[in-house]
Design a protein that fits this description.
The complex is a heterodimer of chains A (112) and B (114). Chain A is mainly beta and 112 residues long. Chain A is built from no helices and 11 strands. Chain B is built from no helices and 12 strands. The chains are: A mainly beta (112), B mainly beta (114). Chains A and B meet through strand 5 and strand 10 of A and strand 5 and strand 6 of B.
Chain lengths: 112, 114
Amino acid sequence: DAMVIQNPRYQVTQFGKPVTLSCSQTLNHNVMYWYQQKSSQAPKLLFHYYDKDFNNEADTPDNFQSRRPNTSFCFLDIRSPGLGDAAMYLCATSRGRDQPQHFGDGTRLSIL
Amino acid sequence: AQTVTQSQPEMSVQEAETVTLSCTYDTSESDYYLFWYKQPPSRQMILVIRQEAYKQQNATENRFSVNFQKAAKSFSLKISDSQLGDAAMYFCAYRASGNTPLVFGKGTRLSVIA
């Protein structure tokens, strides 16, 4: 009965080859977030959607884009992955911005 | 800018004993929320406990409790009767009210010794 589902758990891509990570939720939450977490570091917010309203963090590289076609799904697109983009990518949802966030299992991205 | 500091990169505790994880934060806001998240190895991050800054009473969830000292900007987590399943990375996090991001500390890795 997973509520925030990230696919795949592990993703390998080549340097410079676009990759898309997906996240879906069964909670019907308004807000969806994408975090990047590098080894032994804290998660870092990349951006979030409040419904269809996209909010980008100021220091998120242009290489990272996101789409939310409907309430349930949110995608993270990395246009030209570099070696420094290898990380765990966490998706989270919350009912509102003031509500606790529920995390998925994450997708570990490796760059060859 | 708000910052969250966890000064203990690693901690260990004997099974059934009590351990306290430290967290301090820096903010000029008066209305905010504090959280402790648990991230077991290769598993999802889950919310352990949440504290609203306007509440003076310390939050408690079963074996988990916090010591919230607003004036000192301190928010420590106490785990009582530690269990093997408590072994994880613990992140302290802060969020101001409104449309603001969750700011995490660097985490404390807790080991539980049988």
